[in-house]
UniProtKB/TrEMBL annotation:
Keywords attached to this entry: Endonuclease, Hydrolase, Nuclease
Lineage: Bacteria, Bacillati, Actinomycetota, Actinomycetes, Propionibacteriales
Coiled coil spans: none
GO molecular function, one term: endonuclease activity
InterPro entries: HNH_nuc
Annotated region described as Disordered, given as residue ranges: 81-106
Taxonomic superkingdom: Bacteria
Residue span(s) of domain HNH nuclease: 23-78
This protein's record includes keyword Nuclease: yes
Identification of the protein by name: HNH endonuclease
Length: 133
C-alpha cells in the first residue's frame, strides 16, 4: 500500500528545476486526465509533461509549475516541439485567461493554418480566431 497526500487541484505548486518531482507530475496528471492536444484521447499517465512557456536555463525560478506544465502524448509533444509546416508555423498553445472572458482550466491551441481549438477536461471544441485575424 502506498499512501500519498491529497492533491488540491485549486492550488498551484512550483519548483526551480526542469524536471518536475512526482508531487507536481501527479498534480498535473490529476488535473488533465488526457493529452491536451485537440481531439487526443491518450491517457496523461504515460504522457510527457510539456512546459507551455519554454523552460529557460537561466530564467526565473518556478518555471516548472502546475500552471505551466501540460500532458502531451509523445507523438503530439514531438510534433509541437519539432515540427514546422511548410508555412513556417507550428502548433502553439496557451492556458486560457478567465479575466479576458475565456473559460477557466482550459488551453487554446492554434494550428499552423491559424485554426483554434479549446481543450478542457470535457474534450475539444473549435474556438473563434484571434480578433483581427
Amino acid at each position: 500500500m502506498t499512501v500519498k497526500p491529497i492533491i488540491d487541484l485549486a492550488t498551484d505548486a512550483a519548483v526551480d528545476g526542469y524536471t518536475p518531482p512526482d508531487r507536481i507530475a501527479d498534480h498535473v496528471r490529476a488535473r488533465w486526465p488526457r493529452c491536451v492536444f485537440p481531439y487526443c484521447t491518450r491517457s496523461s499517465r504515460t504522457a510527457d509533461l510539456d512546459h507551455c512557456d519554454p523552460y529557460q536555463q537561466s530564467g526565473p525560478p518556478g518555471q516548472t509549475s502546475t500552471a505551466n506544465l501540460f500532458p502531451l502524448c509523445r507523438r503530439h509533444h514531438r510534433m509541437k516541439t519539432h515540427r514546422e509546416m511548410t508555412t513556417g508555423n507550428r502548433w502553439t498553445y496557451r492556458p486560457t485567461d478567465p479575466s479576458a472572458g475565456e473559460p477557466p482550466h482550459a488551453v487554446i491551441w492554434t494550428s499552423p493554418l491559424g485554426l483554434r481549438y479549446l481543450v478542457d477536461r470535457d474534450g475539444t471544441r473549435p474556438w473563434p480566431p484571434e480578433p483581427g485575424h
